[in-house]
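Schema walk-through. Below, the input block comes first and the output block second. Nothing else is stored per chain. Lengths vary across the set, and this one has 271 residues.
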Amino acid sequence: MSSDYAPEDLRRVAVRASSETAALLRDIACSEGIAERICGETTVADKKAEDYIVDLVRSELGGVQVVSEEMGGFSSPRGGIVALIDPLDGSANYLSCINWASVSIAFADPSSGELLAGSVAPIFHGYPVSFSRGGGCYHGGRRLARQVVRGSIIAVYVDEPGAFEAVSRLISRVKASRRGLKVRSLGSAALELSYVGLGYIALFADLRSRLRNIDVAAAVGIVRECGGEVTDPSGRPLEVPVSSVKRVGAVLASLDVALLSSLVIRSGDSA
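--- output ---
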């Protein structure tokens, strides 16, 4: 049962699995054949990374229920905790030999849906960012004190009709209260959300409603454990389902709670 696992032990497993998988992907980056489709959107790189993660976490933890893009909902064996896996977040970047992609792994309680631990590991450079419930957030092996916003970047996603207009209005509201912020769309939502937790990115905004639980589960836990908030546009805490691959809706995140509050879309407001 999930109660058999201490969150800190789960964090260590998540860090090891994400870091080793990132190293595997780094070693085969830009090589021939890794972009070939196996099934649907799954590439050779995706499958190699997922297989490595699943084998490792099951060897460490036994009966783990896996939720991932390739496996969908719970895969056998039943019982134990849930592992929400995105073996290659930022795949368009990775397959284009652009060095901004990551591996994301989170563990959750299947009964309560509570996120217990997780890790997001950059594939090309930098240390993994991780958390354990009640145990704090980490950058590499260093446990962090409560973080504050240090960066000046707003990370946005606007590659869908209507999203650009909505995010443009949101950015106008942000810049009215915060000077010097710069807009970027980098291409790995898990990594950008994790950097929100570190304070490197001031605000994350995705109003496309396309992100899935496997994309953001670990990073949502990181932001919250680092002292920030992750909400929907109405200000409600973002819900992350754990039983199958599901979209989580629009996402806003920052360590600056006052900034997030100023962006809340109330009834009758436009985005």
